[in-house]
Amino acid sequence: xxxxxxxxxxxxxxxxxxxxxxxxxxxxxxxxxxxxxxxxxxxxxxxxxxxxxxxxxxxxxxxxxxxxxxxxxxxxxxxxxxxxxxxxxxxxxxxxxxxxxxxxxxxxxxxxxxxxxxxxxxxxxxxxxxxxxxxxxxxxxxxxxxxxxxxxxxxxxxxxxxxxxxxxxxxxxxxxxxxxxxxxxxxxxxxxxxxxxxxxxxxxxxxxxxxxxxxxxxxxxxxxxxxxxxxxxxxxxxxxxxxxxxxxxxxxxxxxxxxxxxxxxxxx
Length: 268
Description:
Residues 134-245 form the Dienelactone hydrolase domain. By secondary structure, the chain is of the alpha/beta class. The chain has helices at residues 10-15, 27-43, 104-109, 133-149, 164-175, 218-230, 249-252, 255-262, and strands at 54-57, 65-68, 81-87, 118-122, 152-162, 182-186, 205-210, 235-240. It has 2 domains: 1-48, no CATH class; 51-262, Rossmann fold, CATH 3.40.50. It contains 8 helices and 8 strands; from the N terminus they run ααβββαβαβαββαβαα.
């Protein structure tokens, strides 16, 4: 998976010159610039993204995504950070990453200076949905790439999603329960024929839904809750009696959600 990393202007800023002026630099300075570029590449440019904001990452082969590093990530180079994988809803599909910022984790992560997670928020192509097998494989590949390249606490990886992303959360959790320390599906459900492995019972799950949801009826979540309860799983269910389809805003704005997530790791 190759990222489109643009270095034009990076060296210029390091040398405090305008990019256009670079054409006038003498040959020996050009050698210095080349070495700086090589140095940046060898150190891993992915670790030098801005903190505290969702930046757009476009890739040649795979899913484009928003990427968030918590404040103080660079300062604490030896620390491993919890990670949240966020799956958006049907309306945010396409090729415009600005859409992914409308709801959920990308929106809430920039409202505070203390959001303590690495956040990965991919965008589903317009001709797919998250439960597609191809999307499931792309999500796993993306997650594994981030784990390999960043200071991720592998025992504290969480997944959440809303609406179509809620369905995607159930699907990916069923596909790879070993990856996640906890899961939060919101106003979603299980696709027909979803195979629920027995090992999913070891993953804490907190389900949310609106009682007046006409887009995805609450029964979709409740069927999944019952299925997990039947295998002795660790699951809790919050129904907002007066909420319509948007049961995600109050959920993601609730600090208790993040405290609950951080209370779970694969170690405990």
